[in-house]
Design goal:
The protein has helices at 41-48, 54-63, 69-74, 79-98, 148-154, 171-181, and strands at 5-7, 21-26, 33-35, 107-111, 127-131, 142-145, 158-160. The protein is an alpha/beta fold. The two termini are 31 Å apart.
Length: 188
């Protein structure tokens, strides 16, 4: 049996003296594992406000001195890791297309996709967009969308949510929003 207990990072919570312990629990209906004390909306706002900039680094280092600028700057920017992640996704998409399950994507939306660096390099892609709550600077060829209504206007036929659901307390709602935004016969 898998067991885990954790506390919210002190640099995120509203009151740094807060010691809410969170247990890993399992949904008896679907088997999904989740922590019993999810982040509140205001805690998520604190976590992602000015994400990875100097203020974020200062706030985080106050409680996690080991979290250096080098670590902060390397997250999502390792060339070999990016190449590996994109190649894997390109292989998965190629198999889906080969089996006739979908067409190669033309309009891609990466939810929580940082600067857009995780979007695969496919010749069929005409539009790259990112729905990101942080204020990071996007790649020049990436459209920044601010909400699901804005994302729907992009009419994505591929929506990526890589390493996102574990960061929200409303995963089901996030997936439902993506499904509603996705073009007919699109891929999530």
């Amino acid at each position: 049996m898998l067991r885990a207990v954790g506390a919210k990072a002190r640099w995120i919570v509203d009151d740094s003296r807060q010691q809410d312990l969170s247990s890993l629990v399992e949904c008896l209906r679907c088997g999904v594992l989740f922590f019993s004390e999810p982040f509140s909306s205001s805690e998520l706002q604190t976590m992602y406000q000015n994400y990875r900039n100097d203020e974020y680094l200062r706030r985080r280092r106050r409680f996690e001195p080991w979290y250096t600028k080098k670590i902060n700057d390397s997250i999502g920017h390792s060339t070999s890791t990016l190449d590996h992640r994109r190649a894997h996704l390109e292989d998965v998409l190629a198999e889906v297309v080969q089996r006739g399950m979908a067409q190669s994507p033309r309009r891609v939306l990466d939810v929580g996709g940082d600067e857009g660096q995780f979007i695969p390099n496919l010749s069929t892609i005409e539009m790259k967009a990112v729905l990101e709550v942080s204020e990071v600077r996007r790649d020049a060829d990436v459209v920044s969308v601010k909400d699901w209504q804005d994302a729907s206007k992009c009419s994505p036929d591929l929506i990526m949510m890589c390493h996102v659901l574990e960061h929200t307390s409303e995963a089901r709602e996030l997936v439902q929003s993506a499904v509603e935004c996705l073009a007919v016969s699109g891929l999530l």
